[in-house]
Amino acid sequence: MKANVTYWLDESAKRFPDKAAYVDEKKEITFGMLRAQARAIGGELAQRGLFKKPVVVFLEKGVDVLVSFMGAAYSCNFYSPIDVDMPGSRVNKILEVLEPALVITTGALRDVFSAYDYEGDFLLLEDILAQSQDKPESARDAALDRARSKGVDTDLLYVLFTSGSTGIPKGVTINHRSVIDYIDWVTETFGITEKDSFGNQAPFYFDNSILDIYSTLKTGATTYIIPKTLFAQPVLLLAYLKEKKINTIFWVPSALIVVAKLKAFRNVDLSDTLRRVLFCGEVMPNKQLNVWRKFLPDVQYANLYGPTEITDACTYYIVDRDFTDEEPLPIGFPMPNTDILVLNERDELVTGEEAGELCVRGTSLSMGYYKNPEKTAEAFVQNPLNKAVPETIYRTGDIVKYNERGEILYLSRKDFQIKHMGHRIELGEIETAVSSLQEISLNCCLYDGKRSKIVLFIEEELEKAYINEKISRLVPDYMLPDKVIHVEKMPINANGKIDRVKLKEYIK
Length: 508
Prior knowledge:
Elements: H1 6-15, E1 20-23, E2 28-30, H2 31-47, E3 54-57, H3 63-74, E4 78-81, H4 88-98, E5 102-105, H5 107-113, E6 121-124, H6 125-134, H7 139-149, E7 156-162, E8 170-175, H8 176-189, E9 197-200, H9 209-219, E10 222-225, H10 234-244, E11 248-251, H11 253-261, E12 276-279, H12 286-295, E13 300-305, E14 315-318, E15 333-334, E16 338-343, E17 356-362, E18 368-369, H13 373-379, E19 380-382, E20 392-402, E21 408-413, E22 417-420, E23 423-426, H14 427-435, E24 443-448, E25 453-458, H15 464-471, E26 483-486, H16 500-504
Parallel strand pairs: 1-10, 3-4, 3-5, 5-6, 9-10, 9-11, 11-12, 12-13, 25-26
Antiparallel strand pairs: 1-2, 7-8, 8-18, 13-14, 14-15, 16-17, 17-20, 19-20, 20-21, 22-23, 24-25
């Protein structure tokens, strides 16, 4: 039984000491070097007496971030990444909540960090790595091994911060056991081995990155950290996948949609390269997925679903049949060792095709929001179906239903559910209908409560009358958009999802 994810690194470093583990634009690191450098960092943390403490990693996205993550994990501390481009006000709010014991950064970035509200200790990466080359074995190793031996699998591995409704970011806490369970499932289900290579898209402060990072750590695969600029250049992006022989990608749908929209497949043939295309984070329209399936019919496609609070994903659907452009793609079935409860407003299990809130129980659950008992109590609640013993479920706020095949269909966010013209409407259902139109790439629906209007945002110059005529066969009249706003380019947030907060500014 493994109580710490770094035991995977120990094994992979022993099996593949000279094989590339992670590769970025500037350098690559082998499993052997990764282990040595991570243990140097972890040993320093242990010698400073840090145990089960929050450690901030403030570095440019790349190999060094992952080395730092592993260093924190080796010493039984937990990491929290802060992006170097994050607005200062958000950084300060995170620091206020987290109160980190230490910040891992570089000498140059330390000067940047000094502008924030932090007066604690630093660990400069270049200093520790230089020392590790001079003293590969030291007293730090003994301190590190003592620390790790005290750890249990419910110790925290990381805290990732999501947006909070009050403006205060919420720190989602995930322990080692949750990640171990998740990665065991990923690698077994998709047959990941040391022969595979991942193309990482997700920022390391976004939970989608967990699949790439830890599948690599466990199996001895290789992860290529794709330069962010390539996601705006689809042909070059596909050429990069081909050049690096990347056979597995796990991206947000927005990234896949851009590739399908610009028909990059006509310029780059990936039929002998890609084996798996996995996606998660938002709805994947079948119209764009069908473009991928047309050009790469032999690839395995899978739709994973789940918020950060349940260790990236809790349901999955391996695409096993054809879909029309206007059909919704199922989010599928619960992962093993995960139970899905779809509850109606009376906290009863739904029946038939009744819609309800998706709730989750199992080891995938976060331990709650860091130092935020009020928000934790709102979302992590006693299972209303279990009156005998304490049992926590997480209320996702997502509205779903079962189809005739027993597959779960995502409908919308609970907070995207509106009351309009006397009808309860899921805005996601309108978005699915609009996505089926040949001319549409990205779209988003919001509700203008002040004027009681459904507002549709699109990039294309299409008239409202044309859109409503086309989708009237898919949704009833009361769900047709009242207003269409054309945006030159759909705003995308740091996680690669449509930025709904930004779009609200267009509603006047």
